[in-house]
Design goal:
The complex is a heterodimer. By secondary structure, chain A is an alpha/beta fold. In chain A, 47% of the residues lie in helices and 16% in strands. Chain A has 6 helices and 5 strands; from the N terminus they run βαβααβαβαβα. In chain A, α4 links the parallel β3 and β4. In chain A, α1 packs across α6 and α2 runs parallel beside α4. The longest helix of chain A has 17 residues. Chain A is globular. Chain B is an alpha+beta fold. Chain B contains 12 helices and 7 strands. In chain B, the strands form 2 sheets. In chain B, strands 2-4-5-7-6 form a 5-stranded mixed β-sheet, with helices on one face. Chain B has a two-stranded antiparallel sheet with strand order 1-3. In chain B, α1 packs antiparallel against α7. The longest helix of chain B is centred in the middle third of the chain and has 131 residues. The chains are: A alpha/beta, B alpha+beta. At the A-B interface, α1 and α6 of A face α7 and α8 of B.
Chain lengths: 146, 514
């Protein structure tokens, strides 16, 4: 099944990470979640860990990306991902507190698949996350073409 | 971070000075020129009047001298006519020839004309008496001659000859001659005096014309000089005004640039604040809702059954763990929020605190900071070297905070594999001083060199403690101190933070460009 799809969560705030994870689990998604708390370790994971293990192609991933990282912006991580021939196929869901229109547009332009605003109104947020979970449950991550 | 003083006093003052200059020109130069002009007008018109009067006098004198000439001629012809008539009378008496009688008659008629002609010249002068006696003598002579002719014609020849021999006629004639000579001499004298006067007046006229000419030359040249001078001052003032205008434009565009920068900074600041303050709120809301959900497990509803509690009951141990986790996150988020608000307050307060400039011995100040860090430096096997530094007139507290933050950062981001070395040096740039804090730490990636000065942003591996406040705070302080800060770095080799500060701090913003 989709048990092979790894969810990679790039989120610096521990609390947010925990909430997102809880809600994903609550939606019945049991995929492995890798939590990375800043841009540098995310890039390190994508290009060094996965690269060395030659997992970039064989192991499909889904990326949950926070834009407001302490060491770099999430946009930069997104750019790096989309510039990579293999990783650009991975779906990216941007999660951030910003509802700035130009930034949302920028993320879509760069190739993000879904943009979710983290609201203070928690119910909506939880709903959105749960729907994402359902989304994870049904999608098939395409194999990277040769 | 966002505090900025925008003002244009210097440019305004310069423009005011320009106007002042023009006004001064108008009020100062005009009277001098006016006085000169009036003086010239007065002198030239008095000279003209003098000239006119003198010419009038000369003309009068000429008429007078002509009159004197005529008088003199008349006197001569009077004498001649008398002598001629006398010789006619004598010839007639001697010969009885009618031809002599005719000559006598002709000349006796020529006497009255010249005599009457000179009358006006002598009447009402000191010579009137002399003239009157001449007149009387001439009449006597005429009467004497007429008597002798009458006697001779009436054949009383002896009586006529006796009359002549009696000598009274000769005596009268001598007196007449004397009188005429005297009058002529007097007239000549008068003529001479008047001619001398004419010559004097002529001289005066010449001098006055010469003076007029010189004055005209003088006034013309001096007004030319004045015109040239005021023209030159005007040109200088104009050039100054032009320069001021250009300066004003430059100042305005500079200030506009500063405003634009400040505005961008405000926007960035607002973005960061809203973003970062929202993060803990999301946590608080999220975990509160989690607690709500948990409460259904902890306090199950009395009539136990259905819908709301989804799934099977959860183990009490897990419930307890989740409860404490949620509580921990809520508390942590509240604490974080408090810290963030505190940081923002600190920065905005720093923008408002009044500075007290004082003399600062930078060497001893920075050595003091280095000494206070001895514990950390020894722990890391690092050293801080403070070169001799110039003195500064600035706010001591702000300066201390700027450098202790920079030194603290340098110490914090040293590499663990080499002995750390931090050096503080300075060099003078005109009236500014550039301080450099150089380390051999891990360095900063080029793309992060702008970000590090933003609030709550940090660069590189997030393996050292910190809130991302230090450099934002330093930048705010440096800007308020009228300076600028920039960073140069090689990743893996170290960084140099350059702080450019005015030697003497003043309220007026004179930000240095980095």
């Amino acid at each position: 099944m989709n048990g092979t799809v790894k969810i990679i969560m790039v989120e610096d705030d521990e609390g947010h990470a925990r909430l997102i994870e809880k809600n994903i689990r609550r939606a019945g998604v049991s995929n492995e979640i890798v939590h990375l708390s800043d841009g540098a370790s995310a890039l390190n994971y994508f290009f060094s860990v996965m690269g060395e293990a030659n997992e970039k192609r064989s192991c499909p991933v889904l990326v949950l990306l926070d834009l407001n990282l302490p060491d770099m912006t999430g946009v930069e991580v997104l750019q790096r991902l989309k510039a990579d021939d293999e990783l650009k196929l991975a779906p990216v869901i941007v999660l951030t507190t910003t509802d700035d229109k130009t930034e949302i547009q920028r993320c879509y332009d760069l190739g993000c698949n879904v943009y979710v605003t983290k609201p203070v109104d928690y119910d909506n947020f939880a709903n959105a996350i749960r729907q994402l979970g359902l989304f994870f449950a049904v999608i098939q991550i395409p194999d990277a073409p040769l | 971070m966002v505090k900025m003083h925008i003002s244009l006093p210097s440019a305004e003052a310069r423009a005011r000075d320009g106007l002042e200059l023009v006004k001064r020109l108008a009020t100062f130069r005009a009277p001098a020129e006016l006085v000169l002009l009036l003086l010239a007008l007065f002198l030239l018109s008095s000279l003209t009047i003098a000239s006119m009067w003198l010419s009038e006098r000369v003309a009068q004198d000429r008429i007078e001298s002509q009159t004197a000439q005529t008088v003199s001629e008349n006197l001569v012809s009077l004498g001649a006519a008398l002598r001629a008539s006398e010789s006619g009378q004598r010839g007639y008496l001697l010969t009885g020839d009618k031809l002599f009688l005719d000559s006598y008659n002709a000349n006796i008629g020529a006497i009255s004309g010249p005599l009457a002609g000179v009358e006006t010249a002598f009447v009402q002068t000191d010579l009137e008496n002399e003239y009157r006696s001449l007149q009387a003598r001439v009449q006597e002579k005429q009467a004497e001659m007429a008597e002798s002719i009458r006697l001779f014609a009436g054949n009383e020849r002896a009586s006529a000859l006796r009359l002549v021999k009696g000598g009274s006629g000769r005596e009268i004639m001598r007196e007449i001659s004397e009188s005429i000579t005297m009058l002529r001499t007097a007239t000549q004298e008068r003529l001479f005096i008047s001619q001398r006067q004419t010559a004097n007046f002529n001289n005066l006229l010449w001098y006055s014309n010469l003076g007029g000419f010189i004055l005209i030359i003088f006034f013309a040249s001096s007004s030319m000089v004045m015109l040239w001078r005021s023209n030159k001052t005007l040109q200088v003032a104009q050039a100054e005004l032009k320069a001021n205008n250009e300066n004003l434009e430059a100042t305005i565009s500079e200030r506009m640039q500063e405003l634009r920068e400040a505005n961008e900074e405000v926007q960035r600041f607002a973005y960061i604040v809203s973003h970062d303050l929202r993060s803990p709120l999301v946590n608080i809301m999220g975990f509160t809702t989690e607690l709500e959900t948990l409460s259904k497990e902890i306090f199950p509803p009395a009539d136990g059954d259905d819908s709301s509690s989804s799934g099977p009951p959860v183990e009490p141990e897990i419930v307890r763990k989740e409860f404490h986790e949620a509580l921990g996150f809520i508390k942590g988020s509240i604490g974080k929020m408090d810290r963030l608000i505190g940081a923002i307050l600190k920065i905005s307060r720093e923008g408002a605190r009044p500075f007290k400039p004082e003399h600062i011995d930078m060497s001893s100040l920075l050595n003091g900071i280095a000494a206070s860090m001895t514990h950390q430096t020894q722990e890391r096997g690092a050293s801080i070297i403070v070169d001799p530094l110039p003195r500064l007139q600035s706010d001591k507290l702000a300066i201390e905070q700027v450098f202790s933050n920079l030194m603290d950062n340098a110490l914090k981001f040293l590499r663990r594999d080499v002995p750390g070395e931090i050096r503080i040096s300075a060099r003078r740039l005109n009236r500014l001083i550039e301080f450099q804090v150089t380390d051999n730490g891990r360095g900063i990636d080029e793309k992060d060199r702008g970000r590090i000065f933003e609030l709550f942003r940090r660069a590189g591996a997030q393996d050292r403690p910190g809130e991302g406040m230090g450099l934002a705070y330093v930048q705010t302080l440096v800007r308020r101190l009228g300076g600028s800060i920039r960073v140069e770095s090689t990743v893996g080799n170290g960084s140099t933070f350059s702080v450019i500060l005015p030697e003497t701090w003043s309220e007026q913003p004179n930000r240095t460009k980095s």
